[in-house]
Amino acid sequence: MSQAPLQAVEVFGAHILQQLPRFRSKFSGVPAYPPLFVAMQGPQGSGKTTVTRSLVAYLQTAGLTVGVLSTDDLYHTHANLRKVAEESPDNPLLAGRGQPGTHDVALGCRILASIYVINATKRHVELPVFDKSLFDGQGDRAPGRTGAILEGDPAPTGPSLKAPLDVFILEGWSMGFSPIPPEEVTSKRDASPSDSPLRKYTVEALHQINRNLEAYTEWYRNFSVFLQIRPTNLDNVYIWRTQQEHAMKASNGGIGMTDDGVKAFVDRYMPGYHLFLDTIQQNWRWKGKSKSITIDLERRIVDVSDF
């Protein structure tokens, strides 16, 4: 009898259930321990959002309360995104949302700090929402979704978190990326083939993204477990993202990007993968407590490893 295919939610869910009591043991005698902070990273189209949704259901079935936030919802407002682009006119990587430098890092820090102490403070934490449909697809933070910290027991008007919270997951395409030495940025670009995504941009543009990442490391302060989805080939991201666009257009009457438009869209993200993807498994904060799966073009798991 053939064995059932391994599912990402089972691998990740079992890992969190294993790590949770170990995490809580560090807070013996503390009246209200913080939630276990779990980071998740995977490239566009890898199924990260679907896996996260299934993981929440898996953990809830185990009796846990779970909160989730996407780094996409921490993008700057539309006005500030325009300001970022105007301040760096020679860097096309900052011409729209996506790369380090286009998120409201201070907002993320404030929200994450409040979630970490949510079980002790009993405050509600409102989650921001970034609406990608606004401004003809350029996006903007949804009206009223400022990420406020609320006292008492207010009636939620949108996504929010409250105590008790057992597990908190922050997921994103660049979650866990850390800056690398400037000379490594230069050497990686110089060593890449002429048709590499790194060669599409000036070395100055790449250095700016690397510098922008410095501020993001503050987000990682309380994360102790990392879940990573890795592709067997980074070029799979182009295929997955094109498949997503075709599916969306089939359901909405054909509204969406052309295949060339999808390629140009993904091109802007590729330098991040080539420069910073390997930094995730080198981070001491979650090293020794994290899990990685590798998936093929059909999103089937071909490898599972600890790091």
UniProtKB/TrEMBL annotation:
Keyword annotations: ATP-binding, Cytoplasm, Kinase, Nucleotide-binding, Nucleus, Transferase
Localization in the cell: Cytoplasm; Nucleus
SUPFAM superfamilies from the UniProt entry: P-loop containing nucleoside triphosphate hydrolases
One of the record's GO cellular component terms: nucleus
Entry keyword annotation includes Transferase: yes
Membrane-crossing segments per the record: none
Entry's Gene Ontology molecular function annotations: ATP binding; kinase activity
UniProt record similarity statement: Belongs to the GLYK kinase family.
Name of this chain's protein: P-loop containing nucleoside triphosphate hydrolase protein
Originating species: Kalmanozyma brasiliensis (strain GHG001) (Yeast)
